[in-house]
Amino acid sequence: MTAYAELSAHFGRIAALSNAIGILHWDNDVMMPRGASPSRAESIALLHVMRHDLTTDGRIADWLDAANENDLDPWQQANVREIRRIFTVETALPSDLVSASSKATSICEMKWRQARAESDFASLLPYLEEVLRLQREIGQAKGEKLGLSPYDALLNDYEPGGRAEKIDALFDDLAAFLPGFLGEAVEAQAKRPQGPAPEGPFPVEAQRALGQRMMATLGYDFERGRLDVSTHPFCGGADNDVRITTRYDEADFSSALMGVLHETGHALYEQGRPAAYLDQPVSHARGMSLHESQSLLIEMQACRSREFILFAAPLMREAFGGEGAAWDAEAVWRRYTKVAPGFIRVDADEVTYPAHVILRYRLEKALIAGEMALADLPAAWSEGMRNLLGITPPSDRLGCLQDVHWPSGGWGYFPTYTLGAMTAAQIFDAAKLSQPDVLPGIARGDFAPLVTWLRENIHGKGSLLTTDELLTQATGRPLDPAVFKAHLRRRYVDEA
């Protein structure tokens, strides 16, 4: 076998392990009984160590040195680049640290579910302290290998090439823009008040059926995935087995539906990755800002458009047997584009959502740097919410316990949400310009023009290009925050 063939076969085995880990994590969040948590943590930790050992195998360095890139096509060259990047990062970590982190996050995530339900941060604190301690060690080890700060090293896992310095500038600009714009949006919408909301209850089975119908409309392949329930909505699973979850509230069907639409955006990306390289790093989604751009493009850009609501409002009315003006398309659109500060990030509107992310980004940076104690998180969270949105959470459940990311080890992930929102606006604009039938198609429930364009320009590219290269190729320019601001003004002030 050639050196490249050896690399390809080796990383195919790593992909198989990753698929097994992905399904076990899905089961952990969806079906596993609480009493199985300790043994499951041991099993997942062992698989993480096995994957780490494979990813740091000394032969990889020899194969990388021997691979003659002149004999490789552009996809194979990009695969070698991605393998080298992964190998460099993973060799920074000893196996015992990988194992300890895996066990700590598995246990902490289970404790988080109970703590969130009981709004009891104190009960989670010792477990989250251990996760944070290990994340600091991981960030330090990777940072020393890459020449990065610990936080940038953690961020790099989710956003290759991403740096806090650039994000600080973008987020400081948004934090200065949002309060004034929020006032403009609220004032504009007050001139055309909302009508009455539809009255529940909205049975879970009816919500589930509506969600599945929308997933099918968007192009989700149920032969390669499924919809389930979890404490926190997510998209996970394995290659060719892309599973999503949501959570239901019989008093409000919109939260579950929008969760389904958001996670379907992630799933479409995963189901659209290049099939010829599915078990290779070059097939992976480029980074989480692009991944979040796809979920937010579907949920926010496409499915809160007037065109989509014209199509969807009659289906909502039919699903729940609704009657009256509350189910008219214009009334539904106004509810789905209402701007109002709230406590829960996943339920936030487009205007206030970035504030939720900026808060979490600033807090996790301070925690990783040791600039604040984890015990002070609830108070710092409340202060940040007051400063950014003018509201104070009445409980930890509605505050610092609402997200699973930190208990599950996702430190450095949060900024990709707002980077993704800005990216989504830019990609959706490019798709509409390139394919004039995108919006008319959405209005009739035909997402093929949009999804086909995304398959060709985003999903099917995998990690062939860097994030900036991919975005420039797809939209004609690197990330431009002005596009996102213009979108917000158009939807929430000009059209309100």
TrEMBL record:
<feature type="binding site">
    <location>
        <position position="262"/>
    </location>
    <ligand>
        <name>Zn(2+)</name>
    </ligand>
</feature>
<keyword id="KW-0645">Protease</keyword>
<protein>
    <recommendedName>
        <fullName>Metal-dependent carboxypeptidase</fullName>
        <ecNumber>3.4.17.19</ecNumber>
    </recommendedName>
</protein>
<dbReference type="Pfam" id="PF02074">
    <property type="entry name" value="Peptidase_M32"/>
</dbReference>
<dbReference type="GO" id="GO:0046872">
    <property type="term" value="F:metal ion binding"/>
</dbReference>
<dbReference type="GO" id="GO:0006508">
    <property type="term" value="P:proteolysis"/>
</dbReference>
<keyword id="KW-0479">Metal-binding</keyword>
<feature type="binding site">
    <location>
        <position position="292"/>
    </location>
    <ligand>
        <name>Zn(2+)</name>
    </ligand>
</feature>
<keyword id="KW-0862">Zinc</keyword>
<comment type="similarity">
    <text>Belongs to the peptidase M32 family.</text>
</comment>
<dbReference type="InterPro" id="IPR001333">
    <property type="entry name" value="Peptidase_M32_Taq"/>
</dbReference>
<keyword id="KW-0378">Hydrolase</keyword>
<dbReference type="GO" id="GO:0004181">
    <property type="term" value="F:metallocarboxypeptidase activity"/>
</dbReference>
<keyword id="KW-0121">Carboxypeptidase</keyword>
<feature type="active site" description="Proton donor/acceptor">
    <location>
        <position position="263"/>
    </location>
</feature>
<keyword id="KW-0482">Metalloprotease</keyword>
<comment type="function">
    <text>Broad specificity carboxypetidase that releases amino acids sequentially from the C-terminus, including neutral, aromatic, polar and basic residues.</text>
</comment>
<feature type="binding site">
    <location>
        <position position="266"/>
    </location>
    <ligand>
        <name>Zn(2+)</name>
    </ligand>
</feature>
